[in-house]
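Example record

The entry below shows one chain as it appears in the dataset: sequence first, then structure tokens.
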Amino acid sequence: MTVVAKVYIVRHGETDANRQGIIQGQLDTVLNDAGINQARLTADALEDVPFGAAYSSDLQRAKKTAEIVLESHPNVQLETTEALRERYMGEWQGGSVARRTDPPPDLEPVIDFTTRSVGWWNSTVALNGDAADEELLGLDFEPVHILAVSHGGLIGSLITNLIGSRKLQAAEGVAVGWCFNASISVIDVDETGKGVLVSYADTTHLDGDVLEHNADVRLN
């Protein structure tokens, strides 16, 4: 396997809604002080990664996290996209997960949510593998390093579906579970567009209190 792309998928830092157990979905909430600090610690952890491309959900909590990470990468332009948004939760948005009712009629269907996230992967990341020129994959070849900042529900759904479709396999000892605020997941993509999940929701770069629940993730 020749790694032609390394993808660093980061979940946004903490928001007050995260702390309060509020269902955010596509509400445009902002990072709280803890979230900004988490983003800076994530930036420190990724400072030496030679990013060649960066993508983010266009929601503020993800976009701000990405901007902080890229402060030490001034030549990398951030591309925001609705495709990396969290699942739209309809009438649930803004309410407490503890008081949720039956699923609202305007909840984004799972199939649409899955199609959106996997479509982004296929059109953006997998192409880096498919487009690789075998003649260029020599000893001096360096993979492209890609930053993607999104949301807990989307990250978990995307990776689970990629594994289920055999476009991705988890490395030994790596399991998909909770996706924590400002956690980092790393995927190596080969020349065929398939990949290996090297790590999932790593928080070893963070210090202090890390939330172990997510109102949006519980509902996906």
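Notes for this example: Residues 4 and 143 are 4 Å apart (CA to CA). Strands lie at 3-11, 51-57, 78-81, 144-150, 168-170, 184-190, 195-202.
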